[in-house]
Amino acid sequence: VQLQASGGGMVQPGGSLTLSCQVTGPTLDYYAIGWFRQAPGKEREGVSCISSSKSDSTTYYADSVKGRFTISRDSTKNTVYLQMNSLKSEDTAVYYCNIDVGSQEYWGQGTLVTVSS
Q: Is the N or the C terminus of the chain less surrounded, counting Cβ atoms within 10 Å?
């Protein structure tokens, strides 16, 4: 199982970015997958996740990003996306994708998002 995250960068407050996490190995439709982030000096926190197709692809968002971030999955590309709008300085962090397959957790390598003027 491999997760390849990309799409990070520097953006001004109020801007947008879309992160991608391409998964090699398990078929994404069958598993929940999530995004986490870790800001400098802080613990890693959950941002968003999407359940398997069997569970109706239910989405979850942390309160801090609700209404601004959208998680989605492209089954044809086995990729999950995190569309981030109205970015704030407090969204600055390294973002990681995560999947649990057979009680084994796998993490992407992280992609840095910097929100600064």
A: C
- Length of the chain equals 117
Tokens for 66? 């609700």
Alpha-carbon distance of 61 to 34, in angstroms, equals 10
3-state helix, strand, coil in the chain (%, to 5): 10, 50, 40
Please determine, for residue 55, whether its predicted confidence score (pLDDT) is greater than 90. Answer: no
Question: CA-CA distance, 31 to 7, in Å (whole number)?
Answer: 22
Q: What is the pLDDT of residue 12?
A: 98
> How confident is residue 102, by pLDDT bands cut at 50, 70 and 90?
confident
Q: What letter represents residue 44's amino acid? A: R
What's 58's DSSP letter? Answer: -
